[in-house]
Amino acid sequence: MGVRGLHGFVASSCPHVCTVVNFKELAERHRSQHPGGTPTVVVDAMCCLRYWYTPESWICGGQWREYYSSLREFVRTFTAVGIKLIFFFDGMVEQSKRDEWVKRRLKNNREIAKIFHYIKSHREQPGRNMFFIPSGLAIFTRFALKALGQETLCSLQEADYEVASYGFQNNCLGILGEDTDYLIYDTCPYFSISELSLDSLDTVMLCREKLCQSLGLSLADLPLLACLLGNDVVPEGMFESFRYKCLTSYTSVKENCDRRGNIILAVADHISKVLRLHQGEKKLEEMLPLGPNKALFYKGVASYLLPGQKSPWFIQKPKDIVTLDKQVLSISSDPESKQEVPMRMDPESKQKLPVDTDPEFNLEAPMCTNTEVKQEDPVNARPEAKHQVTMVSDPEILKVARAQHVQAESYLVYGVMSSGEVECSNSLEDATDQALPSQAFVYRPVRQRVYSLLLGGGTGGFSTGPAVKEWFVYSGNPLRQPDLVRPLQMNIPGGTPNLRQLWLSQEPGIQAQRLDTLLACFDLSSSREELQAVESPFQALCCLLVYLFVQVDTLCLEDLHAFIAQALCLQGKPTVELADLQLDHIDPRAVQLATLLVRGLTTLVLVNGACGSPWEMADFMPWHLFDGKLFHQKYLQSEKGYTAEVLVEQNRCHVTRFHTLKSVVCKACGKESRPIVSRRHWRPHHTGSRQYEPDQWRRY
């Protein structure tokens, strides 16, 4: 993340850039300088997930009760010294950063493969050096913070720009995160989350003014330096030969610096002694070997300019930026949205079309364009055109979706409606286990019905609506391009209600209609009565389990017992008891089953939001329904044939509920011709190792 090599350079060669500070003291100073003001810290939440996840166990699907307690303590500590926290989460992946996103996901795949290899070899969780955040952590953290009363926002672009802008425009105490881009933005002070001691509230402040002093640069030069070194917009390899030339002509090479450190010094020296001689006189392309990458380079530099800021390196609006503007269209109803769609040239007509346009999927048919264009000099702001291209035509509904997205109250809904493009990062899945399909495929039919609901279309079978571009990570997916996923029509008695009814109506009976729509998304309308009879929060769990067992025929009765028993035993169990729980060993299959369930809970967040929230979000938050170690314990016990009484720890009330919930799930699955049988009763050929090929699941 951030500028390539800058973090290591600052730590090893410019330690004076880092200063230990205390948040309590900073807050007191801020209050004295701004009477009546509240010291506010803007938190880049995505950078903080690893810091916040303090539970020892991470392999089993997440210790959600422990994690929630960790977040509560974090918030309490800052609140106690009068500091307000504003949390920002990534809401969109900008097209200019998609390649970097893909690169990281593929790297994560390799790390996950090593994790599963370790589990199979050692039957235990790997050390913290192989730590991988539990699936769904970012999504559920939003809701946890909101439940803790915190202001939580989801960005309309990569969060770092919105974090820097908010801090700059609101005179904030500082930014808390772990991204060297915050050393480049000319904004409020930047504090390191990794160096934060919650007990003392000491951390390290990284001073961009001291960095400039060490490099002989001004603050306005830092965006240029960042792009020449490589960042999330400009690939590192683009200026490799240029950096080498700078190094060979650099006369002040430091022996105590590694090669990368000397390269940074050499590039900074070239900027200050060579490029600055012509600043304001020559264009960047006349001073640098930009070649065909001029537009991308200008975009990279401009991406660091916050509202109202200008760069002395831009003489005028380069024509390449004009070209870039024509190629990148804003796809939000809001003119400030930064989500973009790449365009390609149609070789026959020379007309620009959206990438992956495919007549078979009717991608272009429903695209709705507002022709208002806001003229703005893109070298003084983030380069973008202001055309508003969306997937839906109702501006009021889109406005509601956008507001819910920004307030972190929904998941994926706005991405589908605004750009028709969504993504899901890595999950802890074993690529070598062909018996269990990836969560990306298991829940795809649900997403397809949600797409039909959000985008509209015809009736029966596949919708006539547009295909949605899915960047979902699964084994065998090289992520060179998105999967084009067509909406799938739902079967709802009385027809599918429109979004205005589901989202805005206050009429009697609308809540029942919302629930009907939710169940139809899971294709479980026939089990409405059974599921409605289940009390909260187990109603959502049963819905999810029925869907899972119908979709995946290698799940057995022992798996069902484990899922239900852990959810029952979790109720009322103290967090400290969950933390102290010890496991005999780690089973790779149980790890993947946990992933399937947790990703199912994130899918419920999507569906519930799309249907107008027939259920309370709290009903399927994992700290109410799932604990990784507890599930693993129940899985191992169930595999050994433990009775229901033992699985629910001899709790009579739990025993009764266990059989009730089991009956609901088995009856609903029976309606779908899916009997749930014990693994011991499977015929010899049914070993639980059914081969799921990606293409087989892609047919959906």
Automatic annotation (TrEMBL):
InterPro entries in the cross-refs: Coact_PPARg, PIN-like_dom_sf
GO cellular component: nucleus
Higher taxonomy: Eukaryota, Metazoa, Chordata, Craniata, Vertebrata
Chain segments carrying region Disordered: 333-361, 680-700
Keyword DNA repair found: no
Family according to the record: Belongs to the constitutive coactivator of PPAR-gamma family.
One GO biological process term: peroxisome proliferator activated receptor signaling pathway
UniProt-recorded name of the protein: Constitutive coactivator of peroxisome proliferator-activated receptor gamma isoform X2
Biased composition (Basic and acidic residues): 335-355
This protein's UniProt keywords: Receptor
Domain of life according to the entry: Eukaryota
Organism annotation: Odocoileus virginianus (White-tailed deer)
